DNA sequence: AATGAATGAGCGTTCATTCAT
DNA sequence: TATGAATGAACGCTCATTCAT
């Protein structure tokens, strides 16, 4: 059921081969650049590192904000995909915590970027919303599975789970280079997610 | 105890009365402006809102980064001060959690600012480090007190406590406008800070 | 008489049928686009509206200026043609004034375009000059006919007639939407063209 | 009555001496530059020729359009002023025709600029409208005086007079370098403005 | 021959910082 | 000393033109 039977919807044009390559490279480079330097990094820097002219960036993404959004979407999609994969491979509890680690441990710079993205008004457009919903759905499935298994407190819902993810990422970013502290900080969150002990 | 007995270290000049007033107002205004508009807000905007010329800002703070750092220092000092006050008024456990809430609930925009500050390379200079150490000292006292009282897990140290503060602030910022979710998210952190139940 | 007996001069290549169609469509579209949006309109816009690739435009017209010039030439040729037709149908006086109206009343935007064209350095190339000469010839015939008929002041020559046309077009463009004023403005020019009353 | 008793209205701040000089120079230079190269001339070019940094231009005129509008206003004001002066010195008929010549003979490039300004959407703001009204008032006085004196056709109103001015300027611009033709073209307009001969 | 992706110079505009008043 | 005008590097973005498919 995970194999997608993409029906032949025409869509917004079947990009030429080289253009597709450039677009993909741009997204990759942009993610790296924004992660390293924050969203204030110049579009020119992205172009330079992708070895394309500045106009090529703007051909693919009509504004800088569109580029940021595209990077965000890509990341959301990757995470949702990963979540689905993990769920297929193991039980929901393991999958949930594995995904949690994946998100939270992604090189801090990546999270810095994600955070900044959220910070900025980036009124996520329809596409980003859609990607967000997909991730939301996966998280929902993982969460309720883990709750049924008694591994996670029952009162938790997806919105705060996401917030906890974001916050934990931030937390660990702050402890980059101090693995012992990071481990303890993570234990705090992990234990807090457990169902509270009766009594 | 609040009256500071500034010892007669020569220091960086004994600022004239009006200049001191200007400096104070600038810091206040700057914090508000950066909170509202992010650290990208223009220095001119700060000057305008403080009713001083732009050059006056640069006389007091030679670069924009210096201004940002000064705001950060002020905030750190205020928090340390607050911590000391709370400790004087109640037991360490109550004081710790009260300070936690104070920091974490400060209007999200302020945290956005703090976060951005941390994000940016702002290699906190000596002064900021000093203010940080003061806060660190207070937190240390509060933490060990609360640990002795059995209210907080024993393995926690100050660095991760700070990181948890930052992360939680971020978390709650993400849940601004969703108080029920925010309450649950906070419960997660709070419970995670408790000593783990003996199994 | 309208069927052109193009003599077999080698000329600039005998364009394939579809290419000829493309070229014609491009000119038509370009005139419309430049009329609507001014000569600053982008070449891409022309291509888009003509349903051709941008490169096709540049294949037919090696620079944007060449395209503008081609549009101008087309317009000059049409006017000359129209003048010849009018002269064949009626006396020179009627024909002259009819052509005058035709030129001058062409939708203001078209004149805006023509004016802009003239404004810009567009050092009309040889082809444009040729088209200009053709129009010049027709106007000359009309003018001298009308002068012989006593309908137009004798001292007038073609160069100033053209200037008067351009100026009047500009004048009426300025009065677009104010028909009463436009009528009075035109009366001024019309009366000024008449032979001055003796006495 | 012409001596203005400017009351001490505070206005939008009493510009510093050097700033005033710069502002004036910028307007002068901008008029020249836009006249020579059209309104498409770059703001940088204006700055360069005025020997100021680009930011100085934008400090004085927050957008390029504002600069264009300021130049237009200045021109309108100069013309109105000139009209008033002429009227004070001689009868309305002489004054009207003198002003006519002044406007129409201004170096063609200036008219090219004025025309372009009008062409562009330049939705003249309030200030420009005001300046326009002032000129309108002067022209109205001149026109009705000349009409009463029997020197100009009675049916003419100010709007078309302005249009005729614009059109004539365009006309003469087109004949730059051909004085004989220009003289004849102007005679056409001049004669057309006269009251039509009875009979 | 036709396409459209890629290019880079150039534009309008902003902002931290310096300088003249 | 405080002011605010001046500065120029940098940014996001556009467009005529070229190149690979």
UniProtKB/TrEMBL annotation, chains A, B, C, D:
Keywords associated with the record: DNA-binding, Transcription, Transcription regulation
Keyword Transcription tagged: yes
Domain HTH tetR-type: 20-79
DNA-binding region: 42-61
Gene3D superfamilies given in the database record: Tetracycline Repressor, domain 2
Taxonomic superkingdom: Bacteria
Pfam hit, one: TetR_C_43
Keyword Transcription regulation part of the UniProt annotation: yes
Residue ranges of coiled coil: none
PANTHER family: HTH-TYPE TRANSCRIPTIONAL REGULATOR BETI (PTHR30055:SF234), HTH-TYPE TRANSCRIPTIONAL REGULATOR RUTR (PTHR30055)
The name this protein goes by in its record: TetR/AcrR family transcriptional regulator
């Amino acid at each position: 059921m995970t194999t997608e039977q993409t029906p032949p919807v025409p869509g917004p044009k079947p990009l030429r081969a080289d253009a597709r390559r450039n677009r993909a490279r741009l997204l990759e480079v942009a993610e790296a650049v924004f992660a390293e330097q924050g969203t204030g990094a110049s579009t020119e820097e992205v172009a330079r590192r992708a070895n394309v002219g500045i106009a090529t960036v703007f051909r693919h993404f009509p504004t800088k904000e569109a580029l940021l959004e595209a990077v965000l979407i890509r990341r959301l999609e990757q995470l949702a995909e990963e979540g689905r994969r993990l769920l297929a491979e193991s039980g929901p509890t393991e999958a949930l915590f594995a995904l949690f680690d994946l998100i939270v441990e992604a090189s801090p710079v990546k999270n810095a970027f994600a955070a900044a993205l959220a910070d900025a008004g980036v009124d996520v457009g329809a596409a980003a919303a859609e990607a967000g919903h997909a991730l939301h759905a996966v998280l929902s499935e993982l969460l309720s599975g883990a709750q049924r298994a008694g591994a996670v407190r029952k009162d938790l819902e997806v919105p705060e789970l996401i917030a906890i993810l974001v916050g934990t990422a931030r937390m660990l970013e702050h402890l980059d280079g101090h693995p012992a502290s990071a481990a303890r900080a993570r234990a705090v969150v992990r234990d807090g997610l457990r169902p509270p002990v009766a009594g």
